[in-house]
Design goal:
Structural class: alpha/beta
CATH topology of one domain: Transcription Regulator spoIIAA
Oligomer: single chain
CATH architecture of one domain: 2-Layer Sandwich
Distance between the termini: 70 Å
Bound molecules: iron/sulfur cluster
CATH class of one domain: Alpha Beta
Largest sheet: 8 strands, mixed
């Protein structure tokens, strides 16, 4: 790369100008105000990275349209845009404007990488993959007048001797912090909806720790002198206000943001990095996995080195949904302890939540909200599942014919573009709105933040700005009456009685299940509206003992009072049950209590447990009808 820099330098005598643009539609409904941006918005690093890899005989200007206006008459020799899928339509508009003015336009980023033919219809060249090694070739070809239509990455760039991202080109006073950097690229996990491992690779590359430390030190000093300069030039009141903001921890640069997608991918590396960070005396935040919270030593080290915030990809509180999206390493039963571990060390937890997995029904919204509020998470980012081009999810939904909207502007995690399995698109959209409003309601903010350890004012301010943003941009959502009924029915109950288990004859035939399998000692209750009848269908899996049977009937009784529709309980997929459980289910007194509200039917109960039927069921038992 350096030899190329020299040759282009020799062949070009005049300085040229590169205009780098981050597109953002000017009338975008989710556009943030200045105070929202300064509190909760980070810049993207892709263009500062490209600027750093541009030969020094080029001048570089950078415009982030989320915070600045584009001057289409800006003198320049080349225009480069980094394009995420949801901003592709705007990027194409911008490209058209510049091309009309005779400027060559190059598009790069995730969307052009996976839709190069589409992108090429709107520009002169497309860069596919990570651009660091390709960019000097693009520049050389522009200088020689031989720009090619496509530049494809042949190998992932090395992260050693990495050029420092040109954060100095970012607009001042526009973001929460410009002190952004990264330590790793790629991810060895492979979540179905995520484009990181397809785009950045399935192995994690890491930057040498001394380089990261030197970069942060340099950036910190640069920003400090910029702030001092601003304080000395402005009024005394401005200087005092800035001092106060620094003291409280809300001035720009109060926090260093590691924007890598998986900061804690390698324990030994993190140990070395976090140990070294101690000398910098900074506060920092990152994106990490929740299971970091299993490791007390590492969480303590992170906190000691200045970590005050982790964004965690929690995604869902349903194990089935996590398994479905290939994120089984998130273990729901550990979430509470993991969150507490961060909180005990003063680290705020910001989960990313995704709604709309195939296992999600309308109950998911309230169940998730209750959990987040109960566990005092300081912020949460809600998203609607989005099949981004390049992901395995996009391929699956395309195969299944479930994508109904290809307007890329809606691929922003805030719109439904596919047919969900267990709710309608409208219910998913409404639930997303509802969750945002509920989470950022005043009562929720108070419940969550009154327990926070440290940095109360910055955390309160972030919630306040999120609340403003939600109120301004999000319609009030509504959940249908069935949502809460489903939430109260669902559950995973531990099975205590494990003697005398009777195997389900239907399951034994199908799967040759060993009746005493240690993994099945729970009862999983899932409910949904029946596809054909006006009824609630309750599916049982796992092992049913007498205690669980009583709890099941209690939940059914509660649902019957609220739902005003028949209830069908399906035993087909239950693995085993105790005689006591079967007797409880058929207890006339208990079942009679449900009768005034709903007709209760048991589906496949008799077939499943025929062998025990005569022993547990009274001969004159005719209370229950077999459900359809
Ligand atoms: S969601 Fe996170 S853990 Fe999963 S593949 Fe993407 S970056 Fe990796």
């Amino acid at each position: 790369m350096h030899s190329m820099k020299n040759s282009t330098h020799q062949s070009s005598t005049q300085r040229r100008t590169l205009l780098l643009l981050d597109p953002y539609p000017p009338n975008h409904p989710y556009r943030m105000t200045a105070s929202e941006r300064r509190t909760i918005w980070f810049p993207k690093l892709s263009l500062p990275v490209i600027a750093a890899h541009t030969p020094p005989d080029w001048d570089v200007k950078l415009v982030d349209e989320a915070v600045q206006e584009i001057n289409f008459d800006e003198p320049c020799d080349l225009v480069g845009l980094s394009v995420m899928t949801c901003y592709a339509p705007r990027a194409y508009e911008i490209a058209a404007e510049f091309r009309r003015r005779g400027k060559p336009v190059v598009l790069g980023g995730v969307h052009p990488t996976y839709c190069p033919d589409e992108a090429l219809r709107h520009c002169d060249a497309v860069v596919c993959g990570e651009a660091e090694d390709l960019w000097p070739h693009v520049i050389a070809d522009v200088e020689a007048g031989t720009l090619k239509p496509i530049y494809r990455m042949s190998d992932f760039p090395s992260l050693s001797n990495y050029q420092r991202p040109r954060i100095d080109l970012l607009s001042p006073d526009a973001y929460m912090t410009r002190l952004c950097t990264f330590t790793t690229r790629g991810c060895h996990f492979d979540c179905e909806f995520c484009s990181v491992s397809p785009f950045n690779g399935k192995t994690t590359r890491r930057r040498p720790v001394p380089e990261v430390i030197a970069e942060i030190q340099h950036a910190k000093e640069w920003l400090r002198s910029a702030i001092i300069d601003r304080m000395t030039r402005g009024s005394v009141w401005n200087a005092l206000a800035t001092s106060l903001r620094i003291w409280v921890g809300i001035e720009e640069g109060s926090i260093v943001a590691f924007v890598d997608d998986l900061h804690n991918s390698h324990r030994a590396y993190c140990r070395e990095l976090w140990q070294a960070l101690k000398s910098l005396n900074i506060k920092w935040g990152c994106q990490a996995t929740l299971f970091l919270g299993d490791d007390r030593d590492m969480v303590k080290l992170a906190a000691d080195s200045g970590c005050v915030s982790v964004f965690v990809g929690m995604e869902s509180l349903l194990e089935e949904s996590l398994d479905e999206t290939n994120k089984g390493f998130n273990q729901v039963r550990k979430f509470e302890d993991q969150i507490k571990m961060f909180h005990d060390h003063g680290i705020m937890v910001n989960p990313g939540i995704v709604f709309g997995f195939d296992n999600d029904d309308e109950s998911v919204f309230e169940a998730t909200l209750n959990f987040l509020i109960r566990n005092h998470v300081e912020l949460a980012y809600f998203n609607i599942l989005t099949p981004l081009p390049g992901t395995a999810l996009f391929e699956r939904y395309t195969r299944e014919g479930r994508i109904f909207d290809y307007d890329w502007a809606k691929y922003d995690g805030k719109h439904v573009v596919f047919k969900p399995k267990r709710m309608t698109p409208e219910q998913l959209q409404e639930g997303f709105y509802w969750a945002n409003h509920e989470f950022y309601s005043l009562s929720s903010i108070w419940s969550r933040l009154r327990h926070t350890k440290g940095r109360f004012i910055p955390r309160l301010q972030m919630n306040y700005e999120f609340r403003k943003l939600v109120k301004r941009t999000c319609p009030h959502g509504r959940l249908s009456p069935i949502a809460r009924i489903l939430k109260d029915l669902h559950g995973k109950l531990p099975t205590v009685e494990t003697s005398q288990l009777i195997p389900n004859a239907l399951q034994a035939i199908k799967q040759n299940v060993h009746p005493s399998s240690q993994q099945e000692l729970f009862l999983n209750i899932r409910a949904r509206q029946h596809d054909m009848f006006t009824a609630l269908l309750i599916e049982l899996e796992g092992t049913l003992d007498q205690l669980n049977a009583k709890e099941l009937l209690r939940r059914i009784s509660q649902a019957a009072k609220q739902a005003n529709m028949d209830i069908i309980v399906n035993f087909e997929h239950l693995r085993q049950a105790t005689p006591g459980a079967l007797q409880t289910l058929l207890d006339t007194n208990m079942v009679q209590r449900i009768r005034p509200y709903a007709k209760l039917r048991y589906r496949k109960l008799k077939e499943a447990f025929l062998s025990a039927w005569q022993e547990v069921v009274p001969p004159d038992q005719d209370l229950l009808e077999e459900g359809p």
